[in-house]
Specification:
- With about 240 residues, the protein is of the alpha+beta class.
- The chain has one domain.
- It has 6 helices and 12 strands.
- The strands form 3 sheets. A 7-stranded mixed sheet has the order 1-2-10-5-12-4-3.
- α2 packs across α4.
- The mean pLDDT is about 95.
């Protein structure tokens, strides 16, 4: 596991001590990210090695994981991931466990890149949270809300988007931004200090939903390069 330290100076991120607390703690009073900090036993690297080389995002199910000829340490890793998967399923959620060799990139990004490597907020039409845990490979990264600015609020970017939209800066334009998810992506301010979610830690983060009492947690997939290890990621 990589070293990890939750930012001590960031009041919006809070530690919890169990999955029950992760689920039950309200995202309120300014807190928009909860972290159940853990050091998990097991050889997750062996799991990745036995899954073999691949491309893009591969969904993993219980049958495929249990069929791997893992060692005892690899079996511990498999059971840890499946236990987390069941915890989320018992909350009537629909989690997925992925082996990620690479993400698709925007082929024609225009003024605002909207792939997962861009700092962004998740959104939902109703009250919801995002749960995630990185078991192997580079971990997700967070960005403090006070160090982030929506890209659509950057004057030069907004001007380009208005030109593409071909209309005025009015309600129709705001609908256009929303339909293309442009309003969910953020730029780090000068001097911003992104932080790692760390390996093995179980996170619950706020999303952008109508009536949310807190701003969404701004985050992104880690920048990766050819040859980097595949990620094992649980997300719901």
């Amino acid at each position: 596991m990589t070293s990890f330290s939750l930012p001590s100076d960031y009041a919006r991120a809070k530690r919890v001590q169990s999955f029950r607390e992760l689920v039950a703690t309200p995202l309120a009073e300014g807190v928009n990210a909860l972290c159940w900090e853990r050091t998990l036993p097991g050889d997750f690297g062996e799991v990745v090695k036995l899954l073999g080389a691949g491309e893009g995002i591969r969904a993993l199910n219980e049958a495929r994981l249990r069929a791997l000829p893992v060692s005892a340490a690899g079996r511990v890793a498999v059971e840890a991931m499946l236990a987390d998967l069941r915890l989320l399923q018992e909350q009537e959620l629909d989690p997925v466990l992925n082996c990620i060799d690479g993400y698709p990139r925007d082929e024609e990004p225009g003024p605002v890149v909207t792939d997962v490597f861009s700092f962004h907020a998740d959104s939902a039409p109703v009250e919801a949270s995002t749960y995630l845990c990185t078991y192997h490979g580079p971990a997700s990264e967070g960005l403090r809300n006070d160090e982030a600015l929506r890209k659509v609020d950057l004057p030069s970017t907004r001007a380009e988007l208005l030109k593409l939209h071909g209309g005025a800066d009015d309600d129709d334009f705001r609908v256009y931004l929303n339909e293309h998810c442009y309003d969910l992506h953020y730029a780090p301010l000068s001097g911003a200090r992104p932080f790692s979610f760390g390996q093995g830690n179980f996170w619950r983060i706020a999303v952008d939903w109508p009536g949310s009492p807190v701003p969404p947690c701004v985050h992104r997939a880690p920048a990766t390069a050819p040859g980097d290890p595949a990620r094992l990621l649980l997300i719901s």
